[in-house]
Amino acid sequence: MATKTNDLKTTKDAGREAADKASDKAREAADKVSDKASDVADKVRDKASDVADKVRDKASDVADKARDKSGDARDKTKDVASDVAGKVRDKAGDAWDKTKDIASDVADKVRDKAGDAWDKTKDVASDVADKVRDTAREAKRKID
After folding, report:
1. Cα distance between residue 132 and residue 4, in whole Å
2. Is 87 exposed, middle or buried (0-12, 13-18, 19+ CB in 10 A)?
3. d(CA 97, CA 83)
4. Predicted local confidence at residue 102, as pLDDT
5. What angle is formed at CA 129 by the lines to CA 124 and CA 135, rounded to 5 degrees?
6. Angle value at C-alpha 110, between 24 and 27, nearest 5 degrees
7. pLDDT at residue 110 in the model
8. In the chain, which ranges are continuous DSSP H helix?
């Protein structure tokens, strides 16, 4: 009888270990995704800051030259600056959209991996339960 109890405990322990391992793997995958998304966001932020600094520098140069020109040249410079700002906004928007797409793809992959890990855990738990049931039936058959 003590062996039967020990076998049951061992089977339960094996099931718990399998579930813990699957949970740990899912947690590790989520951490990696979080780190990657954070890295991507930092790179986008840095790049946007660099672009903004360059745009400010160029805009300052353009403004100095515009003061030296006539009214028509000033109007043309304003048009060019507006176009540059629009392009910068478009590029920043594109970079942000790309970042969101990457983050979404990574999140989908994490969800898929977590689902796979959960399915594997359920399969292992089911196999363990079947083996416990079979062992119990076999023990009962031997007792009877």
Report:
1. 10
2. exposed
3. 21
4. 83
5. 125
6. 20
7. 76
8. 2-68, 71-143
Q: Quick: pLDDT tens for 54-69.
A: 777 776 776 666 566 6
Per-residue exposure over 23-44, b if at least 16 CB sit within 10 Å of its own CB, e if not: eeebeebbeebeeebeebeeeb
pTM, full prediction = 0.34
Report the alpha-carbon distance of residue 14 to residue 122 in Å, rounded: 13
State how far the Cα of 70 lies from the Cα of 81, in Å rounded to an integer: 17
Q: What is the mean pLDDT of residues 113-123?
A: 81
Give me the residue spans of the domains in the chain.
Answer: 2-120
| Three-class DSSP category at 144 | coil
Q: What is the mean pLDDT of residues 99-105?
A: 81
